[in-house]
Design brief:
The chain is mainly α. Helices cover about 60% and strands about 0% of the residues.
Length: about 110
């Protein structure tokens, strides 16, 4: 099980020389997610964070407390993105994963 988590994390954090060729190896960057969420979470922002949170919770990479809301999950991610602008050029998935893991690690 630990290997699955390690592989999952490596996949999220994987960067490629493709960035230097003018295209991205992932669909959404942290910068793009920040833009969607910073003007007040729109449906895209909330859906993205909810989907990533569900995935992270399914694979036990991060835990979801009882009665958690999507808005709280968005707040956790936005606090991380504001505090760590240097990571926003990575995939949004990796930023969400690190934000969730740091805020509410599984016991």
């Amino acid at each position: 099980m630990r290997w699955h988590r390690l592989l999952f994390l490596c996949g999220l954090l994987w960067t490629s020389s493709a960035d230097s060729q003018g295209y991205s190896p992932y669909f959404q960057s942290g910068d793009q997610l920040y833009d969607h969420c910073s003007t007040g979470p729109d449906a895209y922002c909330m859906g993205y964070v909810a989907g990533e949170t569900d995935t992270l919770t399914t694979y036990r990479f991060a835990c979801l407390p009882p009665n958690a809301t999507v808005r709280e999950a968005v707040d956790i991610v936005m606090n991380f993105l504001r505090a760590h602008p240097e990571t926003r050029h990575y995939s949004a998935a990796s930023d969400v994963a690190v934000a969730r893991k740091d805020a509410i690690p599984c016991k």
